[in-house]
Amino acid sequence: MLPIVAIIGRPNVGKSTVANRLAGVQDAIVYDTPGVTRDRTYLSAYWRDREFSVVDTGGLVFDDDTEFLPLIREQAALALSEASAAIFVVDGQTGPTPADEAIAEWLRLQSVPVLLAVNKCESPELGLIQAAQFWELGLGEPLPISGIHGNGTGELLDLLINYLPRTEELPETDEIKVAIIGRPNVGKSSLLNAFVGENRAIVSPISGTTRDSIDTLIEREGKTYRLIDTAGIRKKKNVEYGPEFFGINRAFKAIRRTDVVLLVIDAEDGVTEQDQKLVGLIVDEGRACVVVVNKWDAVEKDSYTIYDYEKNLNARLHFIDWAETIFVSAKTGQRVEKILELVDRAAEAHKRRVSTAVVNEVLEEAVRRHSPPTNRQGRQGKIYYGTQVSSQPPAIALFVNDAKRLNDNYRRYIEGQFRQHLGFIGTPIKLFWRSKKARDVVETGNSANRATRV
After folding, report:
1. Tens digit of each residue's pLDDT (9 = 90 or more) over 128-158
2. In 3D, which of 21, 151, 7, 9 has the Cα closest to residue 94?
3. What is the mean pLDDT of residues 373-402?
């Protein structure tokens, strides 16, 4: 595990900007409003011969217990407890404040070495004067920096690596990336915490608690999973430009960089129109999927409940009937660990490649059982052969005499045969029906049927 550096400070001093600068990325959301960052956001960084993780934390306020502030303090304390060093970020333009003094007093009680970074010192000449004000905090030499322009960050990193242990070159891990998505307040962060076994993400009944995408690595039975908790995705018309807008964009990006998507549905609300739109996004991106029905403990049940619920679920989500479904409770931990078994199956199917010989064995048997239809002119469709052309998601090209002679029902039949006999469960698949003479290609599976010229 890489050594950790915690970024600490009061709200709106530029902690996320400094974290992004040290990591050389733009991963943490930056917006000119206090309280944008709430959870711990981990970013990979290196300087010279040292690799480490930068942990961006929410703004600390000790004299206010409203809304999320106690939970943010808990997250900051957890980050500090696992850190090799901390960077206390203050605002050089504002000067020392009572809130800075309270944080400094708290940091002096910790056993972690602390570097004092005076941010917003864009002018090298004025920066020294701005930084000098912070000697009174009693945390050593104040270092003038600019998270925006990078001034002074090299000197800060030179001092920082003195506190970081050397790490041997880490072996590459074949991790499975899993994005946790859903509407606000369906229990995505609770699910992440249930996997990790700690309060990795802030959980609150207030919609929109999670604003950034949070990456967390866990290991189970020798496998590594990167769990990505995302902001709740509301209808576009209800989202104002600002932190929520950026958080939702990060959620969309998380879907694109993942292997498997966990679509979390609130068992009490059932499948909503917004859930159906999220399914459309998953299908369009060609991601594998597991449907997770959360809060199952809150549903009153009899011997027919689960069967009735599954029937309704299948009707509302019929366009991902290939995805497996599991009923869980993140609150009690019921069946949470079994989710990873479904993730494994979906990830393996998503990456699977099948030889041309096997594809054609399945195809020949399918045609033998059910011949292609004959059109009104008495002309029958014929399938010559098929071959898998790509994976993630699996795509199979089928060479036929005339794609238009093979109706939608027959195409769905062939797709079903591939799923049944090749094990493509939990993943979308694409079928490209290529005519022998015409240059038409009909694509089916994964999204709505469409014909293209090639």
Report:
1. 888 999 999 999 999 999 988 888 999 999 9
2. 9
3. 89
Question: Residue 374 burial (CB < 10 Å; 0-12/13-18/19+)?
Answer: exposed
Q: Which of the four CATH numbers 3.40.50.150, 3.40.50.300, 3.60.15.10, 1.10.1370.40 does domain 176-349 have?
A: 3.40.50.300
Query: What distance in Å separates the CA atoms of residue 133 and residue 104, rounded to the nearest whole number?
Result: 14
Question: Tens of pLDDT along 18-73?
Answer: 888 888 765 443 334 444 343 457 777 888 878 888 888 877 776 655 554 566 66
The tens digit of pLDDT for each residue in 184-218 reads: 888 887 888 888 775 544 333 433 334 345 677 78
Q: Name the segment(s) of the chain with CATH classification 3.40.50.300.
A: 4-163, 176-349
CATH node for 4-163? 3.40.50.300
